[in-house]
DNA sequence: TGAAGTATCGAAAACGTTTTCCACAGTTTT
DNA sequence: AAAACTGTGGAAAACGTTTTCGATACTTCA
């Protein structure tokens, strides 16, 4: 590998001069600067990020923490999409992305925080399902720049998909289509679910619609089988709902299956509404009506906030940045009026 | 940050001794070693990966190169699953994972190879769709340890899903179910598709079954809409096939839609076969019969081969490592005999 | 008892940068 | 003509490690 020393030797200058020429310092003559840059390019020079990081305490490397209980890992559509968007805009700003999951060094397991320090990461984005573990808390309470997704910590900036508005839009839509008997199979018990659930109830209340307890079922996100079972229970109800909200698009397929196995047609016999707006939802038959979460925007904002936090620490903290989704009208909801 | 120097001062030893105590060298007394380790832990010491990498030329960081033409990025189920598995086993071996996509440094775009050198990556796994770009070639021809997925380069180790055997298994299955009129909507023109297509033809020939040209349709991977159109064309054929192979599970949903929109039932009226075995395929109704690619094994093998290449450069190269999948029998194929 | 061996530790160089401070020349101001 | 800038460049320290080589003290052996 060709280093600054090699260039310095070839140009008969010092390494300090080379550094200045290559990094756009002003106290250097134009002639020398041009010569050095030319030689550097010719010799195929590239800086060494380790040396640079060692000296400057800046790695231009961002961590992403992404661990969920079910270990769906990168196969989780929603987070994968956010991550991808995060990656794209972070890279455009000159940052690399490194995973900050569990790791070993010297036979000892490092905590997330330790891992970040070890790698000298400039900041980290947390896109977890479970934010309550002590390791996550250690990271959040540290001095490292942190941005969280869909979870709010005091004093930390969070990018959150507006689940309240999203659910309201969906309920409003279902009601506008004439539905009054609306059920909700919800996902795991976390802040996202609580937001959606309370918005579900509040919006129905605004429409003066009461929802029986039997219309609220607990399933789990991305769990088609469990959701299918809950759907069957709803379909077996004496006073069956006309429209059922699913935990998410993926498990909505379980809802489809439950209906189709009973010979019911969607949306003629039963209407179904999803959440997420993943590509698959529009490949289903009939196309799923769902709320498209703006994963691209979420990832982009996360990267922007994180880099701004890094490069400009005095920025006033807007703690919570809400990102709107939008309703994706498929053909899975029947018009009743 | 507490460094070795701090520990050395506190223990009245030199940094060299601290380094030895912490890294398990033999030329150090047990008493001192224990004391130093205790103090290190107490002071919350962690090594600095940049300094270490600078000195040793080993970063314990692996690159993953993952760029496709459609920019499906991390939302590509198949690659995301492989990546996740790669990540898990690489991490268990003490390596971190960094993305090696395009990147800027000093306002100049780096090539993949330059990027790897810049970050001092120990090796890189390439899981691309398109392996023919000059940048990928530059990387492959370099001296960096490289493992490729589903593509074979001379002198490089490749992990490839056995598409020949996979397709053979599927065709054998369809034939065993009594199907003779079998169509194939295939994906983009690349080596994977060519393997599957030739295996499709060869296996049918072994069964003395001829397939009309009109039964072979070109679509694109993960493209539900195009696949749906091709499926419609097949269904409109005067001599309609009884069983249709899809490019992949995701676009198979397009096949389902085409059939269901015509009021056809799966598998009673038309049988459908997918490829990949992604979770969604088993959430469909009816469950899709497909070939489950062993993404977990592929990712694991890739990580194992890459780390072994790094840590033990003299390993004899097994250039091509085939990974078997297995048939996932759903309910989307009707028994005709 | 002297020589040889062994165990333990440290000094110092090195990895490739960045950055501060100083030096020197030439130029402008008094 | 002295003083004060200005522009350009270099010396050297520093970042936190690893690693070689030598030094010292202590054992062991003949």
Q: Can you tag this structure with a few keywords?
A:
six-stranded parallel β-sheet; homodimer; 12 helices; alpha/beta; 337 residues; DNA-binding
Describe the structure.
Chain A is 42% helix and 15% strand. Chain A has helices at residues 4-11, 15-22, 30-42, 49-56, 77-92, 112-119, 134-141, 163-176, 191-206, 224-235, 249-261, 295-311; strands at residues 61-65, 96-99, 103-105, 108-110, 123-126, 146-149, 157-161, 182-186, 216-218, 243-245, 271-273, 290-292, 320-323, 326-328. The longest helix of chain A is centred in the C-terminal third of the chain and has 17 residues, at 295-311. The first copy, chain A, is elongated, with a radius of gyration of 26 Å. The interface between A and B is large, with 59 and 59 residues. Chain A binds a DNA duplex (30 and 30 nucleotides) through residues 1, 3-5, 13-17, 19-20, 23, 26-29, 32, 47-48, 50-57.
Strand-helix topology:
The structure is a homodimer of 337-residue chains.
Chain A: H1 4-11, H2 15-22, H3 30-42, H4 49-56, E1 61-65, H5 77-92, E2 96-99, E3 103-105, E4 108-110, H6 112-119, E5 123-126, H7 134-141, E6 146-149, E7 157-161, H8 163-176, E8 182-186, H9 191-206, E9 216-218, H10 224-235, E10 243-245, H11 249-261, E11 271-273, E12 290-292, H12 295-311, E13 320-323, E14 326-328
Parallel strand pairs in A: 1-2, 1-5, 5-6, 6-7, 7-13, 8-9, 8-10, 10-11
Antiparallel strand pairs in A: 3-4, 12-14
The first copy, chain A, binds a DNA duplex (30 and 30 nucleotides) through residues 1, 3-5, 13-17, 19-20, 23, 26-29, 32, 47-48, 50-57.
């Amino acid at each position: 590998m060709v280093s600054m020393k090699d260039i310095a030797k070839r140009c008969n200058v010092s390494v300090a001069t080379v550094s200045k020429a290559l990094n756009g310092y002003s106290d250097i003559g134009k002639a020398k600067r041009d010569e050095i840059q030319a030689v550097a390019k010719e010799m195929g020079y590239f800086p060494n990020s380790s040396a640079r990081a060692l000296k400057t305490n800046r790695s231009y490397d961002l961590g992403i923490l992404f661990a969920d209980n079910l270990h769906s890992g990168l196969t989780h559509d929603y987070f994968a999409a956010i991550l991808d968007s995060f990656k794209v805009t972070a890279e455009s700003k000159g940052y690399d992305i490194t995973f900050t999951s569990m790791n070993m060094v010297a036979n000892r397991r490092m905590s997330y925080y330790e891992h970040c320090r070890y790698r000298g990461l400039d900041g980290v984005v947390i896109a977890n399902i479970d934010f309550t573990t002590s390791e996550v808390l250690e990271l959040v309470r540290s001095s490292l720049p942190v941005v969280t997704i869909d979870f709010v910590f005091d004093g930390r900036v969070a990018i959150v998909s507006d689940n309240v508005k999203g659910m309201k839009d969906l309920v409003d839509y279902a009601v506008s289509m004439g539905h009054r008997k609306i059920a909700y199979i919800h996902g795991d018990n976390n802040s996202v679910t609580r937001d959606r659930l309370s918005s579900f109830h509040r919006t129905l209340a605004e429409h003066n619609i009461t929802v029986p307890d039997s219309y609220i079922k607990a399933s789990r996100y991305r769990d088609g089988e469990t959701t299918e079972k809950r759907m069957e229970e709803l379909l077996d109800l004496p006073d069956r709902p006309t429209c059922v909200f699913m935990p998410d698009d993926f498990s909505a397929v379980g809802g489809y299956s439950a209906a189709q196995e009973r010979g019911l047609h969607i949306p003629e016999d039963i209407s179904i509404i999803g959440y997420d707006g993943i590509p698959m939802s529009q490949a289903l038959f009939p196309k799923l009506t769902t709320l498209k979460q703006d994963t691209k925007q979420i990832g982009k904002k996360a990267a922007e906030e994180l880099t701004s936090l890094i490069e400009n620490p005095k920025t006033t903290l807007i703690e919570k940045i809400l990102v709107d989704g939008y309703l994706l009208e498929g053909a899975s909801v029947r018009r009743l009026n």
